[in-house]
From TrEMBL:
Residues 17-28 have a biased composition (Polar residues). This is Ty3 transposon capsid-like protein domain-containing protein. Residues 31-189 form the Ty3 transposon capsid-like protein domain. Transmembrane segments: none annotated. Signal peptide: none annotated. Residues 12-37 are annotated as: Disordered. Pfam families: Ty3_capsid.
Amino acid sequence: MKQIEEQQTELLHRLPTHSSIGTSTEPSNKLMAKPDKYNGTHDENIVTWLISLQEMMAYNMINDGDRISIAISYLGGTALQWFVDLTLQNQRPSSWADFKEKITARFQPVDFQEHLREQLLQLRQKQSVEDYIQSFRSIVDQVHHMDELTQVMFFVNGLSLNASLYVRLKHPKTVEEAIREATTYESVMTIRKSNHIKYNTFL
């Protein structure tokens, strides 16, 4: 155990510190949130972590040659040990694309796509339509090979009862159409409630 910790410490000492990440030539007042460390646990999503990390590095204009070193500084636990083992076996990823492919192959569950579809099946609107749309998109954007009408079906099924009925009456052909109708329904309902107006949205 002590030997593993020493190996990890030695590797991390070779990496740039977070404060040195990004040297944009143009000053910006915008803040880009740093991704959390990825530890390789079952509760973490390697795809969304990679997307978050890549967005941060693109924002800071990190070139591909430095991206692996930056990524390692955001690894911990099992994920960091995985990289240590690769390095000790002289199998360190040769490029950023190679790193993404290898870490995804190692930590993405074999049944990941089935799991995403199960999440869509169980997803329900519990708060605002906007919150539901965000949750829906965070899942469906990771799904491979799902046709548009199937996506529409999942989206409409997860809406609240009245919103779902309203959107179905509009017969949306795309997810964006369904989202627009659901948003319209919520806007009308909000206005009706705030003005104490009796209004039948189904007419």
